[in-house]
Amino acid sequence: MALSLSYAITKPFLRVQDRSSMNCELQRPKNGVVALIRCESKESSSELPEKHSKLEIGSPIIFIEAPKMIKTAATMPCLRVNSGLVKPGDVGRIVSRKPKDVWAVRLRIGTYLVDGKYFKPLDLAEYS
User: Do 115 and 102 meet the contact criterion of CB atoms below 8 Å apart?
Assistant: First the structure.
């Protein structure tokens, strides 16, 4: 089963950025007011990389890159510069999943909202 996306926008659409892995179709009426785009992955969904398929609440993670900014997961979040609070190699645990590949991660210094590109699942068998 291939990944399929459909989207309608009300502004003229210039171009699709990365067509290397997508089959995209752009349709514009002559007046140019509405642009419709339909994209499908060239690969089947079983072939797509599932980077965070092993992640669930309670999963241990390890940071592979230090984020420049970190946001607390408190009721009133606080965005702050990462001044050495989170470093590559730090270990945490997933607390919850947020939209757009953002995860609430419990660290020794508190709970923070972190983008999934900064960490990977920690395989405890590698470190035994």
Answer: yes
The Cα 38–Cα 20 span in angstroms is 15
- The CATH class given to the 60-121 domain equals mainly beta
pLDDT at 113: 94
pLDDT digits (tens, 9 = 90+) for 64-78: 999 999 999 888 989
38: which residues sit within 8 A by CB, 6+ positions away?
Answer: 4, 5, 6, 24, 25, 27
Query: What's the token pair of residue 104?
Result: 């609430």
* 86/107 Cα distance (integer angstroms): 9
Question: Rounded mean pLDDT of the chain?
Answer: 74
pLDDT at site 36? 45
**Closest to 36 (Cα-Cα) out of 10, 1, 55:** 10
**DSSP state for residue 125 in the 8-state scheme:** T
What is this structure's pTM?
Answer: 0.56
DSSP β-bridge partners for residue 40: 4, 23
